[in-house]
Design goal:
There is one protein chain. About 30% of the residues are buried. This protein has one domain. It is elongated, with a radius of gyration of 28 Å. Strands 1-2 form a two-stranded antiparallel sheet. α1 runs antiparallel to α2. The protein contains seven helices and two strands. The longest helix is centred in the middle third of the chain and has 30 residues. With about 220 residues, the chain is mostly helical.
Length: about 220
């Protein structure tokens, strides 16, 4: 009688690896695209020398805070760069399947909204000024064309916009254009330098919404 045969135990099967859902890149891509567009439109293509002023209280408030002014172009660039950094953090966290806190979209939204407001305050004053000078108001929101139109309002050749992209030269040219815009509205050179070049957030709304007529060359009929 032969001895019973004992079969060896079957090797244990390795545990099945969990199937991970695909990574969703929608939010990081949206963050990066919006921040990059904002950097180009609000920052790099913005007019140099602009100042934006913000007020967080009125004269009737119990607690009042003084208005504060910021350089428009530099502030927009910094805010959009911060937004790009936040977009990078979102990419990094998404690639590692990690969740970011609610702070990221909140801070990102604040940066982009503030950058837009800085840009919009300057555009509003230029829009009204262009209309009064018989130019197209919407030119204020079109990169490069806004500088071209500003040169025309100043009575200078339109090709001068090219000089705005040359470092140091752009400072000199922007001062000349600002002074000539002031003169074409019956203002002096001091107004052009201090209020149209240095404090544009004050000078352009005064020209656009004030009573000073445009006395430069060209038609004064508004173009829409």
């Amino acid at each position: 009688m032969s001895a019973p045969t004992i079969d060896a135990p079957a090797p244990a099967r390795p545990a099945a690896q969990p199937v991970l859902p695909p990574i969703k890149w929608h939010a990081p891509i949206a963050y990066g695209a919006v921040a990059l567009i904002g950097l180009v439109v609000f920052g790099l293509l913005g007019t140099s020398g602009d100042i934006s002023t913000f007020s967080i209280s009125t004269s009737k408030d119990f607690v009042r805070f003084e208005p504060f002014a910021v350089p428009s172009k530099l502030t927009a660039i910094i805010l959009c760069v911060v937004a790009l950094v936040l977009a990078g953090i979102s990419f990094w966290a998404t690639s590692r399947r990690r969740k970011v806190g609610v702070w990221l979209p909140i801070v990102y939204g604040i940066c982009m909204v503030f950058a837009f407001l800085v840009w919009a305050l300057v555009v509003a004053g230029m829009w009204a000024t262009f209309l009064k000078a018989g130019r197209r108001g919407w030119a204020a929101i079109v990169p490069f064309y806004n500088i071209y139109t500003l040169c025309k309002v100043a009575g200078k050749p339109g090709w001068w916009w090219i000089l705005y992209i040359i470092p140091i030269v752009n400072i000199v040219i922007s001062i000349i254009v600002a002074v000539n815009v002031a003169r074409n509205f019956g203002k002096g050179g001091a107004y052009g330098f201090f209020l149209l070049w240095w404090l544009q957030f004050i000078g352009y709304p005064v020209l656009g919404f004030g009573s000073a007529p445009y006395i430069g060359q060209g038609s004064t009929a508004p173009r829409i």
